[in-house]
Amino acid sequence: MMLRPLLILSFAASLASAFNINATPQKIPAIAPTAEQCTRRNILHRTASLGFLTIISTAAAAAPANADVIRSPGKCANGEGEGCDSLAEDNELIQSLQKKSSENREANQREALNAYYMKNYPDVFAASGKRMVKKMDGSFVLYSPEEVKDLTDEGKITIEYPKSKGGRILDLTQKPVLVLNNE
Fold first, then answer.
1. C-alpha–C-alpha distance, residues 108 and 114, integer Å
2. Are 151 and 134 in contact (CB under 8 A)?
3. φ, ψ for residue 79 (rounded to 5)?
4. Closest by alpha carbon to 180, among 163, 168, 25, 154?
5. Which pLDDT does position 20 carry in this prediction?
6. SS3 state at 158
7. Environment class of residue 171 by beta-carbon count within 10 Å: exposed (0-12), middle (13-18) or buried (19+)?
């Protein structure tokens, strides 16, 4: 541990010169480390100890986390589950939102699935010369470009701009969808 006095002396000398104390420069005695102190094992041990002390001092300075805030008594997804009552805390607004979410669960899942397909696979069938057209029941059919043109001219296919948030907001991250009105 010959390093500690050397660090203290060098710190004191730099502090003194920074504040112009004792304008005459001081000579810091050079302390040469011994052969025992220069082994790889000792250097690695000192480096690891310093890193460990840094981590410990940082962890001790941080405030402890309140785990009760993070924990929930159960799962609550789409307004359903054991944890929904405890999350609502007898708040009527939250309970009504959970009920509404539960009622719209299937529609929300279908909307999310369609958004996934249309964001990731809109032009999948373009290589085979087919176009995806959405039917009124939500399923998709494939038509050739000529069939799409004919059905569009007859007014059976319209363009629908995808919406999100239960149909309230236009989703501009997706391409417009061709919709087959009636067969």
1. 10
2. no
3. 75, 10
4. 154
5. 52
6. strand
7. middle
Q: Are 31 and 6 a contacting pair, CB within 8 Å? A: yes
The DSSP secondary-structure symbol of 79 reads T
Where does the pLDDT of residue 64 fall: very low under 50, low under 70, confident under 90, or very high at 90 and above?
A: low
Tokens of 98: 């959970």
The residue to which tokens 């699935």 are assigned: 113
Asked whether the beta carbons of 111 and 165 are under 8 A apart, the reply is no
Mean local confidence (pLDDT), 33-47: 74
> Which two structure tokens, joined as six digits, stand for 12?
């004191």
Residue 148: count of CB within 10 angstroms of its CB: 19
Q: What is the pLDDT of residues 142-170, one digit of tens each?
A: 888 899 899 889 989 888 887 877 778 88
3-state secondary structure of 118: helix
Q: What is the three-class DSSP state of 179?
A: strand
